Each structure stands twice: as structure tokens, then as C-alpha cells.
Amino acid sequence: MRSAPSFGVQAFFDEVTGTVSYVLHDVASREAAVIDPVWDFDAKSGRTSTASAQRIADYLDAERLTLRWVLETHAHADHLSAAQWLRRQMPAGAVRIAAPVVIGQQITQVQKVFGGIYGMEGCIAPQGADFDCLLRDGDVLALGATRIRALGVPGHTPADLAYAVEEGGAAAGAVADIFVGDTLFMPDVGTARCDFPGGDAHALYRSIGRLLAHPPETLLYVCHDYPPAGRAAAWCSTVAEQRAHNIHVHEGVDEAAFVAMREARDATLAMPQLMLPSVQVNIRAGRLPDADAQGRRFLKLPVDAL
Ligand SMILES: [Fe+2]
């Protein structure tokens, strides 16, 4: 564990979807990034709520943090993103400059596939421009002296990024923590599914190998937790713990064995409850479809498309 971290991490767990959102902040500058914020959505009523995102906004306010970036690890299929609401949340009195919403450059592939499924071709901005910033593997964002490095970790989707945090100051350049997105889950839960369009279990295995090549004490923050009965929700593990105990990819599991396991398991999984509402919003950076002349908004329900 770090003795004198130059940055802080606060997790927000959404019990409804099992999603973990994070606020990462640079201690000296009070600049912050929010990772994977949840916009609450009740599919039965079609009602949205910003209750989960408000908790994050309240934390930013209480800690006097300036929101600098909203980071998406990928286009989520299990919850709607609160990126558009949250990016405009500023502490009282602050200059109102909305924080850029960031995702991996390969989001354009995901938009192409799902844009076709939903018939959204005319609604999606060209070249990923629904997002404010597209990152390639190795690109770096600044958060004061802290650096956030994008690691391409395809597999769950082609566009998945992990965000590796590099400390400023004396430890400059050292990777201390990684937000791993949908790659690894907690060791007793395993790994992310790879059966959505564009998913690839071979790619996920290699992406996980890249994450687990970091030093053993590196902290890994997962995007979801689905705790087994009797265990409280958790979201932080280490490279060493994952190597030793991850039920799907502990040391000694080779690519062929992992892929066989992953594909067999994926064949048994139901679609996520909010997949159809979520993806059409999240591939446009958390925007609902445009309103009609009466101000009404409608989500689409593609039939027999998946
Ligand atoms: Fe996901």
C-alpha cells in the first residue's frame, strides 16, 4: 500500500446494477476525475433519477474538488451513464466549464455495430464525436501532477480501456492503481463476459495478462461486483491476489483453457436487465435520443436482433 499517496480514490457502489463508480483526485490540485458514473433508470416505468450521480456530485462539493474529466471504461450494457449530467456539476462559484467525457477510440466500432442494431445511423455523430475525447492505448491525461494513462484492454468490448494512475512528485511515473473496467472482477467472481457483439475471449485473456504484468502490490479497482452469498460488496484487489486466486485466470490457466471456460460460461448467461435501454444511450456518451416536436423521448427496443 502507498504510504503517502498524492491522489485519493473514493468508490460509490450501486447495488441495483452492481456497478462501482469512482472519484479519483489529485491531492495537491484538488482536480478530480469521475469514472463510470451511473444514471439510475427504472425500466418498468421508464423513469430516470440522478440520485446515484448526486451522491458523487455531493462528494465533489464536500471535498472541494474540481471535476476535470469524466472517464468511461467502455460503453456499458448494464446501466445508463450519468456522464452528461455529471459533467456539468461544478462547485458553487466555480467557472462553468463542462468536463470532457472520455472513452476509448475503438468506440466507433461499437457505435457501428450497435448503431446498426438500433437503426441509429443518423443519430450517431461521425468519428466518435458524441464523446469529447477519444483515447488510444498509451495516451495520458493530467490531473494536476497525477497522470492517468489509458491501457487498451479489449475483450469484453473492442473499446475497453483501463485507466492506470501514475503518481506525481517523488514517485513520478510509477503505476500505483489501475481502474480495470470490465476485465477482471474480484477474485471470487472472475472475469467479464465476452459474448456481446465485438467481444473476444482471446483478446480478454491477453488484456488481463497485461494488467497482471504490473507489480504485485498494484491496486486493481473493478467496475462491478456481484458478491457471492455471505460476502459484502468489494471492489479493490491487488495484482498478487488476482494472480493467486482469480477463479478464471489464476496463474497456470492458459489462453485455450480460459477461452473454453469463458465461452461455455457466456453461453449460459442471460442478457443484462438494462442492456437494450443502456447501450443506445451509452454509445452516445450518456445522451437520450433527441426529443420529438412535443419534447417526448423514446428508447428503441430492437426485436430478435441479439
Ligand atoms: Fe460492461
For the structure shown, list the relevant keywords.
alpha/beta, 7 helices, 6-stranded mixed sheet, single chain, Metallo-beta-lactamase, Chain A, 306 residues, binds fe (ii) ion
Structure description:
With 306 residues, this protein is α/β, with parallel strands linked by helices. It has a single domain, classed as Ribonuclease Z/Hydroxyacylglutathione hydrolase-like (Metallo-beta-lactamase, Chain A, 4-Layer Sandwich), CATH 3.60.15. A 6-stranded mixed sheet has the order 1-2-3-6-8-9. A 6-stranded mixed sheet has the order 10-11-12-13-14-15. The protein has a 3-stranded antiparallel sheet with strand order 5-4-7. Helix 4 packs across helix 6. The longest helix has 12 residues. The radius of gyration is 19 Å and the shape is globular. The structure holds fe (ii) ion. It holds the Pfam family Lactamase_B.
